[in-house]
Task: inverse folding
């Protein structure tokens, strides 16, 4: 599966307030992790990354990231992480999905 094919399978929601440079970093991080997920899970249909801001005080924003991966056989993997660092939260959430999918041996 090509990078363009994988990019078309990602849906972001709740990222409206994120500035462009930060969003570019988020997208790059998700693309990198999605490539790895494609190696573990065959037949990726959709990856949803949803952002909720828990605390919005200046210099102490806290982010809640919900991720959901759906693969061809209808299996769904989900993960939720809350952290002060948005990129860390996204990467950790996707790492959990990768770990769960690897354990299921749905390769």
Result:
């Amino acid at each position: 599966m090509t990078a363009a094919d994988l990019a078309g399978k990602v849906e972001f929601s709740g990222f409206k307030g994120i500035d462009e440079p930060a969003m570019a970093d988020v997208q790059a991080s998700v693309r990198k992790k999605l490539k790895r997920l494609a190696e573990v899970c065959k037949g990726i249909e959709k990856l949803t990354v949803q952002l909720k801001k828990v605390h919005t005080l200046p210099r102490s924003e806290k982010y809640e990231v919900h991720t959901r991966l759906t693969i061809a056989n209808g299996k769904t993997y989900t993960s939720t992480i809350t952290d002060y660092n948005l990129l860390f939260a996204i990467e950790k959430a996707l790492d959990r999905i990768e770990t769960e999918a690897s354990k299921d041996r749905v390769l």
Q: What stands out?
A: Helices lie at 3-7, 20-40, 86-104. The CA atoms of residues 6 and 34 lie 7 Å apart.
